[in-house]
Amino acid sequence: PQNLTFSFGLSQVGEFAFVLSNSAREAGILSQESMDTLVAVVALSMVVTPLVMLINDRWIQPRLCDPDKNKPRREHDVESEENPVIIAGFGHFGNTVGRFLRANNIGATVLDTDSDNVDTLRRMGFKVYYGDASRHELLEIAGARQAKLIIIAIGDEEKRLEMIETIKKHFPNLRMLVRATNRNDAYSLMNAGMLHIYRETLDTSIRMGVDAMKLLGFRAHETTRLAKTFFKEDERRLKYLSSIRNADEYVIAIRKYVEELEETLRADRDMLRSGVEEGWDERQMVEERSQAVEEDR
Question: Which CATH number does the domain 85-199 belong to among 3.40.640.10, 3.20.20.70, 3.40.50.720, 3.30.470.20?
Answer without folding.
Answer: 3.40.50.720
